[in-house]
Amino acid sequence: MKNKIKLEEIKSINPDEIDLDDKEMVKSIIVGLLEIIQTLQDQLAKNSKNSSKPPSSDGLKKPRTSSLRKNGIKKNGGQKGHIGHTLEPVENPDHAIVHEVKKCEYCGTSLEDEKATDYEKRQVFDIPPINLGVTEHQAEIKNCPHCGMENKADFPIDVTQLVQYGFRIKSLAAYLNNYHFIPLERTCDLFEDMFGHRPSEAMILQSNSSLAVSVKPVIETIKQQLINSPVTNSDETGFRVGYKGHWLHVTCTENLTNYDVHTKRGKEAMDDIGILPNFEGISVHDHWKPYFKYDNARHSLCNAHHLRELVFIYEQYQQEWAVKMIDLLIEIKEKVDESRPNKDHLDPSKIKGFENKYDEIIEMGLRDNIPPPEKMPKKNKRGRVKQTPAKNLLDRLNNFKEETLRFMYDFRVPFDNNLGERDIRMMKVKQKVSGCFRTFEGAEEFCIIRSYISTARKNNCRVIKAIQDAFKGNPFMIQINMQNSN
Predict the structure, then answer these.
(1) Is pTM, for the whole model, over 0.90?
(2) What does the alpha-carbon distance between residue 449 and residue 13 come to, in Å, rounded to a whole number?
(3) SS3 state at 257
(4) How far apart are CA 260 and CA 228, in angstroms?
(5) 363 part of a folded domain
(6) Adjacency order of strands within the sheet including 257-262
(7) pLDDT by residue (tens digit) across 239-272?
(8) Looking at the domain assignment, is residue 435 inside a domain?
(9) Residue 22 is part of which domain span?
(10) What is the DSSP letter of 151?
(11) Domains identified in the chain, total number
């Protein structure tokens, strides 16, 4: 008799046909039901704090916020040395309004002809009334007195139409739509309310297209710099395009960001993007299997994911090894953070001690999670024997020990993949605002523009200036590269 019965088999059993005297049958049904109950409990217990589920999936019953970080000794508020941003008066204001004293408030005598002995000053910082300006370009036409030929002056290179928008208003349209995710219609509303002029949605879309074309060479430079980087972070998330599921891929560093949209999530998409196939540094990611198909790179796993899964194992299965592993990973991280200002690696003796503790915890966990007995595969059934979540996590930590502890061996490697997740988070906000992109071309343009904006922002360049420079033919990264080449 089998040890347990699958859900499909339990559903097909007629309760009247159960032989209560058949202990093996009753036992197999109970075992099967207990496993189903455990699986359902695991599903209900997962939230954004102990799994990879997004916070939006928590619903109205939000889990109580908890942190694995230890309480610090710093007080709340600005720390010593923090530079404040208090509004200070300026020496030469743009405008001055004098408020006159008409009469004495005590005796009523007129003071209009008296000179002021002093002034008490207060300054108000505000935005002046905004009006859309129109500049008319007039090209002179002259006849040559010698040969009689008519001559006309040249218009500026960016003035090509009888009536057109300038680069500043197109930059603002692209800035609002791509950086702040304001939808097309609401962007038009904003222009009408602020400037008294309502552009068409087509104007905003055309501005986006022109900007994407202007910064396309910059994106190629960003990709090449990512390929040459010693460490990169990668992540991917679902992306709706034309009401169909697509995938948004991000590869980034502290100074660079590249976004790409693709119909696939795995290696086919990564090959088409062209960064990972040529990358020979360390790739930080969340253990998505296609990343490991690139043997040209070394890999580092996100320990934030590990910590959440370990919390889940302890909450659901009360296994002590999970708590010990949490404490060890945080201890190593604290030691690395403490040593980083003065060193680029831990002492070999310290590394060996941490490795031994890591192995001891894995052995402890394996003792608590005996693998299921091997069974003959059923017909038309593929894959390995099903294991518990605790055993699956143990196998990953055991088989990918070096990738898990990479941050301990090389201080350039971060503890987690939070950089990649932060860069991808705002793209999810775009999805929440807009729902989906109507065309794949529009999604591609958005990824190009966001790659440019994110990179400019990381390099302390104001986004609106970076967009204006791109419209003027002098995009941000080209300036950086010219300076670096010199």
Answers:
(1) no
(2) 59
(3) strand
(4) 18
(5) yes
(6) 257-262, 244-252, 231-241, 282-285, 298-301
(7) 999 889 999 999 999 999 999 999 999 999 999 9
(8) no
(9) 1-36
(10) E
(11) 2
